Amino acid sequence: MPPSSPTSPEPPTLVVIRGNSGSGKTTAAREARRRFGRGAALLEQDYLRRTVLREHDTARIDPVAPAFITATARTALDLGYHVILEGILHTERYATVLRQLIGMHAGPVAVFYLDVSFDETVRRHLHRDEPIPVTPGEMRHWYTHRDLLGVAGETVIGEASTVEQTVTTILHASGLTAVVPQTPCPRRCAHCAHDADQPTAAPQTP
Fold this sequence. Notes:
Blueprint: E1 14-19, H1 25-36, E2 40-44, H2 45-53, H3 65-78, E3 82-87, H4 91-104, E4 109-115, H5 118-126, H6 136-142, E5 155-158, H7 163-174, H8 184-188, H9 190-197
Parallel strand pairs: 1-3, 1-4, 2-3, 4-5
């Protein structure tokens, strides 16, 4: 992406939220995007890999998902969307493509790792509104201790952080509280203009 000129908008923000299954990353990512509103793309690893590609998460098949997910993020950024990318995103399969995505992005980047113990991930799974049908044994197989990406400025959020605290940290540390939407819908759409005129934030219509 070429450098921004004085009259062009700043490059969009890339936010990467990683952590083990049950760490709370999906909840935090969805809430962060909800609070930002339109103009931020939420990319969920599980949806793109399981639903779109229907691909197993294993290195033994030379997976397509890592390249597909980061290419999707790159496209959204190029189109002016702030991007919130979330998932387990194991370094074994995703470190190289994520570091390339981060290194090539001209705009702000914020990387978060939700560091939650195995026992706590199991407890959180059991108390989910929509429990995923997995056993603690399966979760143990997926669990990787402190699987940091190892990039500059990576923020580690511990399990003592509440959802509210985690979302607040993500929004403020990434700078999403200080940037505006750059995509056409929030800037030109009559529905978005109507929402902006309301005295209190309301759920946005599809």
